[in-house]
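ok so I'm stuck.
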Amino acid sequence: MKILLSGGGTGGHIYPALALIRRLQVVDPSIEFLYVGTENGLENRIVRSAGIPFKAVKIQGFKRSVSFKNLKTIQLFIQSIQKSKKIVKEFKPDVVIGTGGYVCAPVVYAASKKGVPSIIHEQNSVAGVTNRFLARYVTKIAICFEEARAEFGKYPEKIVYTGNPRAQEVVGIKPSAVLEEYQLKATKPTVLIFGGSRGARSLNEAFLEALPAFMTKNYQVLFATGEIHYEKIKQQVQEQTIAGSPVSVVPYIENMPEVFANVDLVVSRSGATTLAELTALGLPSILIPSPYVTNDHQTRNAESLVKHGAAKMIAEKELSGNSLVASIDDLMLNEKARKQMAGEAKKLGLPDAADHLIKIMQEISH
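replied:
not stuck anymore, here's the structure
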């Protein structure tokens, strides 16, 4: 079997594709893969370093305002369709899967025009512009939030609820002493706070305001600042903390799923991959949606958990040191409430999401 995947721009589009590839390699080691992305996108580095064959097409996103750049974008799109058709013809995939980002548009479109079965995977509760464009051409539309059905209302017969393949990767991780690597106690109740891979300035500011309060709590805090903010925040934290304090500050957490498996509460943005992991593990969370994303989809993602009692939400404009500590205390000082939220989160999780998607792939490729 040969599978062609495409997705780019952000980790939220790339990591589900890689999780699916890793699961497929376990299910059938003979499967051949090809990943199509852009040369200067994040996917080039990440996919190549994972040892997956990679080819690039040249394309860029449309500007939302009227712009001469859009003429160039149209020209590149037409050229990238021709190149994608050539790639599809040479590789001869049994299935083509797009996981989001504008690079998917020419690749999945070319596959459909070549009569190759295709799937788009929409991670968020609000569909991206590329997936909305591709919906009419693909064989199946895989979604991770029930709310996304309305986004593809013209094609109800194509929609399948599969979940995010990243969920299946994290669900088998067992508790360990990993917190000791961050100078924390492995057995003490722990809150993990992070603002995405690059950090979030508003969350960093709220954390610094909350720091004196955190020093007095009977739970411990692991905080990831994001690489660019780390030195400045570390200096401010060192001025207020002593050795053995219940607060640990790091720039970035490489082994996030393992850390997830060893904490009691997560405070984070509400990106689709994070929520897939939290629900698969049954972790209570306080979500602070980023207001800087397309169509405010992180708010919609968070609301889908909040309405089921699987998370709490703080709007960015309401975020402060006081609101952060109060929300954390509500859960960390009330084990019953925390366990109830964990149970609701688990109900929403799809721990076999990759297998769901693989089943659909097998059905359409025969």
